[in-house]
Prior knowledge:
The chain crosses the membrane at residues 6-24. The protein is of the alpha+beta class.
Amino acid sequence: MDLLYNLYTGFLLILLFLAWRVVYNRYFHPLSRYPGPFIWGVSRIPYAAAYARGNLHRWVQHLHDQYGDVVRVAPDELSYRNEQAWRDIHGPSRNFPKDMRFYHASKAKAPSVVVAPDPVHGRQKRAILRAFSEPALKSHERLLRPFVDTLMQKLQQVITEKRDHAVDMTEWYNYVMFDFMSLELFGESLGCLEQGTYHPWVDMLFGSIKAWAFLSQSKYFPSLSWIIKAAVLFFCRDLLHHRTTKLTSIASKVDKGKVSELDQPTFSAYIRASKDPRSTLSEEEILSNHSFMMMAGSETTATLLSGCTFFVLKDPEIYKEISFQIRHRFSSPSEITFSSLSSIPYLRAVLQETLRMYPPLPLGMPRLVPGGGAMVSGQFVPEKTSVAVASWATYQSSSNFKDPQLFLPERWLGTGQGDEDVKAAMQPFSVGPRACPGRSLAFAEASLILARLIWQFDLELLPECFSWADQRAYIIWDKPPLLTKLTPRT
């Protein structure tokens, strides 16, 4: 009898506690005055469930369309979709630390530039910026060109062997970018292009995306996090083993200085070049940043290329225009360079519009409001509130872009078609001191690869991929095959 009474009492107390939390979050929480759906405002569960299912970006877009430019998407989190929020949260005069509940905790001995505290971040970024200077871009181009040549040769070989000439361009863009970044960072290619398949480490990276999504959300539920972590670690034990093995291999290459054996300066060489203690990295920091840059410098550009290929081929007029400009500007592949491609504004506009329609990071990157609170988008936000600009929802909003669902490169050409657009609302590389420094390199890489592909082949999107962009997102997009028919130009 006492046992039943105790169980009943305990159960009742739990219910009372949950009821109190619901009432508090709805009516007395500092964020209770912000608009948003009732269930999202009283519990983190709807947000976490949408994130784990890969459709959070669509839910957030729907909520913004319903409630406006600021939405309470969790008891302690606000989502924004306007230009002002970018400046208020990420601007150079702001001091909003990253919400570390969202970010994956690395096992490296030193933090990467992504999560390093401000003084360390400044020193690390100064070292990394050398790899994005004008002389560095020329070195990167010389290292990239052989990979692009190999990509064209392999595509020619594949379509010769296949009767339908169908190629999954998502895979081949990943192959070339991961091979290139591996050479830049660790002194050797992964061999994806040569083998025509993913290296086990790349397989591990893509296979662990959903695991990262679950782990990041587990931090919001401390009482359940150990169960979620244990389950993820159990089901992903092989992936984690491959990760540990690869990190050991990376450390060995970094320690041996293998990257210095190449004729051209690499990312690693530029990062190591400075002797100034204000802009140098320890070996542990180099390892941590190389591991991060391996993913950030390859997957994101490959995603840009995949998205661009899809949207261009979906519109025959856009494909006709970009093909005409590339094929009439260049008489041979050797003429297609980083520098010469800058003379084709339409190509840059196509890539810009792809970033709007299909940003490599579709979700917001949460920051925490500092002590004392701060003004965000014209309203006071209490301290310790998690705030983020929802990238995809922002770029798909009619309050920022006219006809946001239409792929219109002309809006970036200054011809009048995009005059009504709030272009500053689109920040795929972020803004402020923690913005990605790789903007110029990413555009140059994507331009070179896309131009070479269009110059050498006629392309046609297969009908089964007409809805390719309707994807799930787990931090990054979960990309399906992009089946494209390639026909060599005569």
